[in-house]
Specification:
Elements (H helix, E strand, L loop, with lengths): L8 H17 L4 H28 L1 E5 L5 E6 L4
Antiparallel strand pairs: 1-2
Helix pairs in contact: 1-2
């Protein structure tokens, strides 16, 4: 099993979706479900961190009064 810290966002999200499917199936034994839950929590945290990093890198193009691009400003998703 690949360490979570080495996963791309897409890899972590795909595995997290698999974890959710397994947990929802109700066919997983208790001990394994605890391990799966722990892995899922790690994957969720990793995905959230990757999204936060991506958001911090996104910039908004600012326009001058004449409509021409004149620079960038940090993206604000609020």
């Amino acid at each position: 099993m690949k360490p979570v810290a080495e996963m791309s966002f897409e890899e972590a999200l795909k595995e997290l979706e698999q974890v959710v499917r397994e947990m929802e199936s109700g066919t997983v034994e208790l001990e394994k479900s605890i391990d799966i839950y722990d892995r899922g929590a790690q994957l969720k945290k990793h995905c959230e961190a990757k999204l936060a990093q991506a958001q911090a890198r996104i910039e908004q193009i600012t326009l001058a009064e004449n409509g021409q691009p004149d620079g960038t400003a940090p993206f604000d998703a609020r």
